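Hi all, long-time lurker, first post. I run a small reading group and we've been trying to get comfortable going from sequence to structure in the token notation. Rather than ask abstract questions, I figured I'd post a concrete chain and ask someone more experienced to write out its structure so we can walk through it together at our next meeting. Sequence below, copied exactly:
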Amino acid sequence: METFKNFSDSIVTSSVSQPLMLGEPELHGKVIDCQKKLTRYLKDQVKTDGSVRDVCKSRVLESSLMLHLLTIQEIYPNYQYQLTHYLTTQLDKEHNNKFHKALILGVLRKSTSEDAQVVEDYMTGFQHFTASRKRVLFRAILAELRVIPYDSQYQIEHFCYRSYQSWVAAEICALKVLYAFGLNHQKWVNHDDVEFLLATQNNNSIWEKHVLANIIILLALQKFPEHDHVVLKGINNLLSCQNSDGGFPFIASFEIFCTATAGVALTDTGVDVDTLLQMAEYIAGQQQSDGGWAYAEGVRQTDVDDTSFCVEFLRAVNPEKYKEYISKAEAYLLAIQNEDGGFPTFARGNPSEITMTAAALNALAPRSAEYTNVFEFGLRYITSQQKFDGSFERSWSLSEAQAIFRSVLAMRTCKVVRSAQLLESIYTAEAKALDYLRKSQNSDGGWGHQLGDASDVISTSYTLIALSSLGDAETLRRGTHYLMLQQDEEGKFVSIPDQAAPRPIAYDVPILTSIFALLALKYTAAVITE
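-- Answer (accepted) --
Happy to help. Here is the structure in token form:
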């Protein structure tokens, strides 16, 4: 998302996307009141160091694997009891999720023969470049929990891990160990593999703040008795992030992403400059030597998503003060663009993704005139990847609207496009996206993750951001009313989660709902006149 200064002047006019101005004084007043209440809530979440933090909620996946790890190590019976209680409680809540049910029954040693097909059932409809890798992971997890046997179709060549981002590389290496022992092919594992895994455990914190990756690594390392002390140390690190419900989260913290997105949302809302500067100083202090940012403190793997939000926030607060940080980040983003015009999440050469491409273009938008080729290639990639129904691949979200709103904002940079054919493709893409959002709006005015799903706050927020540029006053009006009705007395918003990792498993950092709701209210207020 671009910054909000001169917001109304930044909307690009196209054949289907005219600047939308709703002359509704009563609605405008209600939106502003809702926005002010939410702004106060989010400002109160800013810590003294300028960060915004929230606890990632527990998940069945990590909790099941953690219980399994403690069980085979025969340690910490009290933690085992808490995990068993959490998972037993979740069994009733997760009865419709066959994969989660199989995990719980597996670790409780209650699985049945029908659980053997659960991975393929769960992956049905998941069309993504990571799908084959996820099958390897999910099958290994169920095999570890003794729900299914280790799959002999996988050979050593399936476990080449050096080209991936940090935690995926470590996970694949760990899976290599697990399959090697599970299939009685210990010769697959060499000294370098074990040393690679050990290197992740040489500190007193959770490596990369990635709970799932650490558990899988420890499950692999426990195959080597000489490293029991390392496994015990890693377990003790993980126990520090157990939630009050007894379960374990996907990640230990998410403060850089939360702070950057909250900062973008709070800019130009009347929040005092000192608070914004405090947040900006925190973000600036987290930039890494490559010019990028990670999602949490202590995580070394930088990425396009976090970097894009951090750039937008610093530029919104004071572009001159943070000029050097912004310049380094822009160089980081420019170096990652692939030959197909798209941007991957982590490193050039990895598959391009719609949402990452849009994120990078939105972060670079103020310099679009200088990077005409970057934007033309990027926009061509976005329009070429749109589905027939107007949606896009969802990437790290389960909500169709997330990729749509980011792409729509990126397409507003089309003023730098020189190709008439590309411009026509952009206008067509806008029209198809608007048609999809119209069709997927529910009778209550909101939107769900996909067409036909029940309405939720975060999908509705994403959609309203897109509609503020795409037009259609009545669709926007109904959606705005739905969103405002969901605000609680404290001022915040609550939703089902949409963030997903490992894709397609959802994880929940609750404050993100309120952050994106504020962004939606700001975009909506900008096109509703008094």
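A couple of things your group might point at:
The chain has 21 helices and four strands.
The first strand starts at residue 22 and ends at 23.
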